[in-house]
Design goal:
Jelly Rolls, HTH_AraC, Arc Repressor Mutant, subunit A, DNA-binding, 249 residues, sequence-specific DNA binding, alpha+beta, globular, 9 helices
C-alpha cells in the first residue's frame, strides 16, 4: 500500500465493542482521544487510557476492546517505517505534539502530496524519544499460574492470599511466587495490582465514581488505591477522570 494511502481515520466506538483477533502486514497505532482501549496479544494485555497510544508491530495477532464511548483514532505505519519503533506491542504516553499529529492524521484528508508521510515522520520521531509506559499485564502459560489468573480475572477484587489461591490451584505459595517472577517477570502483588488497575480504568471510563471503583476492585483504603493508581498510571484517579471529561467535550 503506498504510504500516502495508508489506512487512517477516526470513529466513535461504543463501550464494550471488540475487534476479534487479527493481524496486519504493517504496523498500527490506535489512540483513544477519549475513552480507553485494551489491546491483547499472546504476550498479554496492554491498556491505553486517553493519554496513551497503543503500538502493534507488523505480524502480531491482536484484539482490541473499548471501554467507555471511545473516540478511536487508527493510524497504519507502513512496514518500511516500523523499524524506527520497538519490535514488540507497547503503550506510549501522548504529549501535546504527538496528540495534535495523531488528530491531524485522522481528522482530514491529505491536503498536499506527501503530507501524510511527513506527519507520520513527526509521530515516529515523538514515539522514538518517548519512554514506554506499558500498562502491560502478561498472561501466564504454566497451568498453575493460569488457574490463579483465571480466579482473579473473574473477581479482581478478591482478597485471597497467594497461599489461599495456591490451594485452589494445587500449588504451594512458594512455587507460585517463584513462577510469577520467573515466567511473568513480576511479583504476585504487582501482577494483581496491575490487573486491578486495568479494571479500574475500564470502570472509570464508564463514568463510575472513584470510591465505588476502588472498593469494587479490592481497595478498602482510598489512599492506598490513589498511591497504586498514580504509581502505575502516572496521575491520580481524580485527575484521570477529569481528563476523560475534558477529552470527551
Amino acid at each position: 500500500m503506498p504510504p500516502s494511502t495508508a489506512l487512517r481515520g477516526g470513529a466513535w466506538i461504543p463501550h464494550g465493542f471488540r475487534f476479534e483477533p487479527h493481524s496486519h502486514s504493517d504496523g498500527q497505532l490506535v489512540y483513544a482521544a477519549a475513552g480507553a482501549l485494551a489491546t491483547t496479544t499472546e504476550r498479554g494485555t496492554w491498556v491505553a487510557p486517553a493519554h496513551r497510544v497503543t503500538w502493534t508491530p507488523p505480524g502480531f495477532e491482536h484484539a482490541h476492546r473499548f471501554y467507555g464511548t471511545t473516540d478511536a483514532r487508527l493510524v497504519t505505519v507502513p512496514v518500511d517505517l516500523c523499524d524506527e519503533l520497538v519490535a514488540h506491542p507497547s503503550v506510549f504516553a501522548v504529549g501535546p505534539l504527538l496528540r495534535e499529529a495523531l488528530l491531524a492524521l485522522t481528522d482530514r484528508a491529505e491536503a498536499r502530496p506527501g503530507a501524510v508521510r511527513r506527519l507520520l515522520a513527526v509521530v515516529i520521531d515523538e514515539l522514538a524519544t518517548t519512554p514506554e509506559q506499558s500498562l502491560h499485564l502478561p498472561e501466564p502459560h504454566d497451568d498453575r499460574l493460569r488457574a490463579v489468573a483465571e480466579l482473579l480475572h473473574a473477581d479482581p477484587g478478591r482478597s485471597a492470599t497467594l497461599a489461599e489461591l495456591g490451594r485452589a490451584a494445587g500449588a504451594s505459595e512458594r512455587t507460585l511466587s517463584r513462577l510469577f517472577h520467573a515466567e511473568l517477570g513480576m511479583s504476585f502483588h504487582r501482577w494483581r495490582t496491575t490487573l486491578r488497575i486495568h479494571h479500574v480504568l475500564a470502570q472509570l471510563s464508564k463514568g463510575r465514581s472513584v470510591t465505588d471503583t476502588a472498593m469494587e476492585c479490592g481497595w478498602s483504603n482510598p489512599s492506598s488505591f490513589i498511591d497504586a493508581f498514580t504509581e502505575i498510571v502516572g496521575q491520580t484517579p481524580g485527575r484521570y477522570q477529569a481528563d476523560l471529561r475534558n477529552h470527551s467535550r
